[in-house]
Amino acid sequence: MSTHNNSAPRILLIPGAWMGGWIWEPTVDELRDRGLEAATLTLEGLEPEASDDDISHVPLERHVTQVANMILEWPDRPVVLVGHSYSGMVVGQVADRLPDRVISSIHFDSFLPIDGRSLIDDWGPEEPTRAHERADIENGNGHPFHWAAPPPQALEFEPGLTPQDRTYLSERFTPHPGHTVLDPAHLDHPISQQKGMFVASAATNIPHMLRTPDAATWDIRVMESGHWPMLERPQDVVGLVTEHVESLD
Questions:
Q1: What is the mean pLDDT of each run of 10 residues along the chain (249 residues)?
Q2: What's the first-to-final CA gap in the chain, in angstroms?
Q3: How many folded domains does the chain comprise?
Q4: Considering the domain boundaries, does residue 187 fall inside one?
Q5: pLDDT tens across 55-93, in order?
Q6: Highest taxon of the source (predicted)?
Q7: Has residue 173 been placed in a domain?
């Protein structure tokens, strides 16, 4: 096993919607084997034992504060944050809040925060789609402010997942705190002014804010995968994270 490089940034990987730290644990293990110091966590309301009431009352700010507090509790070392899907909303705000600690971020198919806008504000191609999703979250099928996980049949449309991957996800998904995707983000500076890497799946359009001149510090990549690259192409994910962290030396 490799020895940790005590001068390298720490890497904190944040799970996306409906998932806990378990989705990133194999990635964390591989990064540690490469000599990097990596960790993950489960965001509040997504623990297996979370009650319906717990899930219903978690705001977006609590996830941002949870991650920021974890970074502040560590010794004074730079941090690289890794987000996926929903957690890009969290990662982008933490990086904005702690610019002296978060030296870069890596986003895998992330929703990127825009000040004053929620994730659902940019969900789907049309407002009727967004309105329907908001209503589903607010009602939560009898559990208000629960964002229901995709049903097993929806994962059939992810061709990069094996049958084992689909079972793994569907058996471990939990409802996601609905307020976290309805609450607006708060940033002091546009995310395009941050330093980072954005890795889009081949079917994802690169967010328009990364095409502006302000985004010169972003490294844009496209991966031939679906929405769960840590399952579909785990070694490529580890390789991109390692490459990006090493480029910061």
A1: 67 98 98 97 96 95 98 91 97 97 96 95 86 91 91 89 95 97 97 92 61 65 92 97 92
A2: 22
A3: 1
A4: yes
A5: 999 999 999 999 999 999 988 789 999 999 999 999 999
A6: Bacteria
A7: yes
What's 123's domain CATH number?
3.40.50.1820
Token representation of residue 8: 């390298």
pLDDT at 19: 98
Q: Residue 192 falls within a domain, yes or no?
A: yes
Q: Measuring CA to CA, which residue among 54, 124, 63, 58 is closest to residue 88?
A: 63
pLDDT of 205 reads 55
Instruction: Tell me the DSSP string of the chain.
Output: -PPP-TTSPEEEE---TT--GGGTHHHHHHHHHTT--EEE---TT-STT--HHHHHT--HHHHHHHHHHHHHHS-S--EEEEEETTHHHHHHHHHHH-TTTEEEEEEESPPPP-BT--TGGGSSSSHHHHHHHHHHHHHGGGSTTEEPPPPGGGGGG-TTS-HHHHHHHHHH--PEETHHHHSPB--SS-GGGS-EEEEEETTSPPPGGGGSGGGGGEEEEEESS-S-HHHHSHHHHHHHHHHHHHHT-
Q: Which of 135, 104, 124, 119 is nearest to 63 (CA)?
A: 119
According to the model, what pLDDT value does residue 142 have? 83
Nearest to 204 by CA among 132, 108, 120: 108
- Check residue 203 and give its pLDDT: 65
Any domain includes 4: no
**Do the beta carbons of residue 144 and residue 138 sit within 8 Å?**
yes
Give the residue numbers spanning the domain of 28: 10-247
